[in-house]
């Protein structure tokens, strides 16, 4: 096997830098030497710090190879892990006595033990003995305990597979088979049900690959292969992965593709896939200083350090649809766009960490000029932002987003449902829960119908808004990423808010730009996130430079967006 020496050098350098950081977080002198500097660290954090130390300790190319200076810090970390473990084998990591959170730590601990065992240095024998006790104590708890989310099934199963490999117990493969027997929650186009790049990269993909390897389940690899293919089409030119459709906390965050590194390497090597090789090489080039955590993984599986197949260009001209998450991705060279209409809000009208509720329905990038979100907020009975009830492709270059909001005014109860004592059952009506017998009341509705037609045109996009049914003030919000310059707009305040009253505005970063408009008057309309937020003093204000175009329904208005790739500035 030919080794990728550049890759190993990058991991070694980044791993050594991480060790330096870990050591700096531990006291290094005085009477309290060897105590944890951050006693609030949970088991997952401590286990990862120990993994970083061990990777350098056993790696002959590391500056810390068999360095006695690591023995004390490693002892502190391992002792702390033993002290934090409950009698039932579980850890408190946010959640109490949590099997899935314990599994995250246990995967690292199994890897640490295996590396130290193979290294077989006498100096680490005491730490190996303690780690073995921790692992043996945790395994049965994972084989009987429960979990919370889809990805937890695979994390727990991977931890059990690792534990079984080290300390065999028939209960562990039986539990793995129970979880796998439920099937993997992935669509044919590679999207897991949580729709989260964060959890795909950090949990589901690596866990499925671990189970496939240790339990001889090669069919699991195809789920990862399909997810990586989908990720390739969600990938931005700067290495970020589109996450607006996520059902988890990353739905408003920028996720870097770097955490997928060894997954793309593994599948590139397995399939001789030049596209995946290109992505892996791009990660190595772009994020070299941040890849130290992969060293332990590569030491465990040297095959990951093999020389990659020749790279081929990744797709850069496409329109890709993902119906299961109501999302479309469009790329034209360095210009990309995302159209999203797959919110969970219409099925479950609440805000939670496992629901898709982001009201952003359009994004646009031209090189470094990034329009992170376009949102629409009518001020209509506190119902909040427009969230499309699905996404339809209506033509070769057109997509449609739409929704209808109905708010009732309740009329008197029909005589047959009236009670003279007024003791009606408590019934819900969206915002209210009252003794009103809402289901039996006739109603008058105020209705607001909203549609947005998204059309790809030469040099950019047209977004045509059509609102009808009721009169309501509204604001369209364009949020540009910090770091660029806005022209043609009027500042509202010093907090990054601007109004486009007339003509066009322009957002510029270096030689990249996005022109937008026209303005629709200077009437100020504040964004209304809806009563679900305002009742608890919450908000939905995105970070960045926010430009507002305002109006009043009924309204038909076309927002034009043109980029520097399609026009000469």
Distance between the termini: 51 Å
For the residues shown, what is the average pLDDT? 95
Strand content: 15-25%
As residue ranges, the low-confidence spans are 29-34
- Count of helical segments? 13
Largest sheet: 15 strands, mixed
Structural summary, described in words:
- This protein has 569 residues and is of the alpha+beta class.
- Helices cover 33% and strands 25% of the residues.
- The strands form four sheets. It has a 15-stranded mixed beta sheet that branches. A two-stranded antiparallel sheet has the order 1-2. A two-stranded antiparallel sheet has the order 3-4.
- Strand 19 (505-509) and strand 20 form a beta hairpin.
- The chain is globular, with a radius of gyration of 27 Å.
- 45% of the residues are buried.
Can you summarize this structure?
33% of the residues lie in helices and 25% in strands. It has 569 residues and is of the alpha+beta class. Helix 3 packs parallel to helix 5 (125-144) and helix 4 packs antiparallel against helix 5.
Topology, pairings included?
Elements: H1 5-24, H2 43-58, H3 71-84, E1 91-93, E2 95-98, H4 99-119, H5 125-144, H6 150-166, H7 171-180, H8 197-214, H9 221-234, E3 240-241, E4 255-256, H10 261-271, H11 274-286, H12 294-300, E5 317-322, E6 327-332, E7 335-340, E8 362-366, E9 369-378, E10 391-395, E11 398-410, E12 427-429, E13 432-434, E14 443-457, E15 460-480, E16 485-487, E17 490-491, E18 497-499, E19 505-509, E20 512-517, H13 531-534, E21 545-563
Parallel strand pairs: 18-21
Antiparallel strand pairs: 1-2, 3-4, 5-6, 6-7, 7-8, 8-9, 9-15, 10-11, 11-14, 12-13, 14-15, 15-21, 16-19, 17-18, 19-20, 20-21
Helix pairs in contact: 1-2, 2-3, 2-4, 3-5, 4-5, 4-6, 4-12, 5-6, 5-7, 6-7, 6-8, 8-9, 10-11
